[in-house]
Amino acid sequence: MTADAFQPDLQSHVYQSDPVPTLHRLREEDPVHRSRHGYWFLTRYDHVKFALRDPRFSSDWARRQAERAGSGRGAPAAASPYEESETDRENRQLILSSFNMKDGRDHSRIRTLVNHAFGKAALESRRGRVQEVVDELLDGAAARGSFDLVTELGFPLPMVVASEMIGIPGDERERFRRSFEEAGVLGVPGHSAELHATALEALDWQLGLARGLVEARRERPEDDLITALVEAEEEGDKLSVDEIISAVVTIFTAAGTTTERFVSSGLLLLLQHPEEQARLRSDPALLPTAMEEILRFHHPDQSTSTARWVTEDVELGEKVLRKGDRVRLGLGAANRDPSQFPDPDRLDLARTPNRHLAFGRGAHFCVGAGLARLEAEVAILATLDRFPQIELLTKEPRRDPRRMDRYEEIRVRV
Predict the structure, then answer these.
(1) Which numeric CATH code is attached to 3-413?
(2) Starting at the edge strand that comes first in sequence, how are the strands of the sheet with 146-148 ordered?
(3) pTM above the 0.70 mark?
(4) 202 Cβ partners below 8 Å, 6+ apart?
């Protein structure tokens, strides 16, 4: 069979449920793959790393939409096949204006402000609070005798920590997190009209809360990230209200939702690989390399990719990607490339070197990577220490039908 004949459906439930065989075949036969959905899909480590660093692979989707519309940088978000109000379209456009969907100075001027909250010293100052939250969650698990690693540890830990950092009120945190889950459907191809309507409602509520908090911090500053962004705006960095709001949404995603999969999937991997779990228990000094191997091997899922588009023609892997073409950079696929990782389908908690791409590379390297590592280290080590006889009850976890890059439930007995 020729490479051109292999056309897997990269948006199908079958592929998402078990992506590894398909990714191996694409990496070997057609590493710069033109998918049936119209985008290029990169699966080799060198190609993905190259695209992450090359400025011709852009994250600025508002610019692409504007160029295609021929109307300058103020073009509206792409039309939806479902009914939407003008407010709905404006909300979707606001998300496209986030600093992680910009390039060059438009990206760096906001990210520089945000980076202060995620610096090494700032993160270490939060370690005690992370440990407190983990201990509280594990106390509840011990009292119940069994618990779900997803909904009772993976979700609430980063939700509390990220919300406190940003400045989300305690009584709004659960709904704020849930709104991300619901609004995330907007980025999933092929969703229903009903889910689209729910997602738009969630996005409108989410942005409304953020807008209200920005206005409140103008009047009454607090020790949180929203206040820092508001004050930076007032000191002349010229952050607009919409830029602050979109930054808050991005930061919560980076500091919160990514971590929930790191924690729950990391513990699942250790429970599925008892020899490696025993290795870590006997030598806690392995924890740093273990975290990197979990990120490489699984997090958040082998089908994980990040979206770009090309601003000018690019030749890659004997293919020509034309200006305006959409590209998916297969982070998960790159992390199993045997040219970079010997025996890539084996979990090795002592693997070194381990230059995985789970958090990306270059200017758009995940801003919440340090916090995610910190929370996962604390949560995983505390769980193993607290429950030496932890037992996996959910033998074959199912993907969450709302988000195929995570599990619906991973129940354990403690």
Answers:
(1) 1.10.630.10
(2) 146-148, 411-413, 391-392
(3) yes
(4) 178, 179, 180, 181, 182, 183
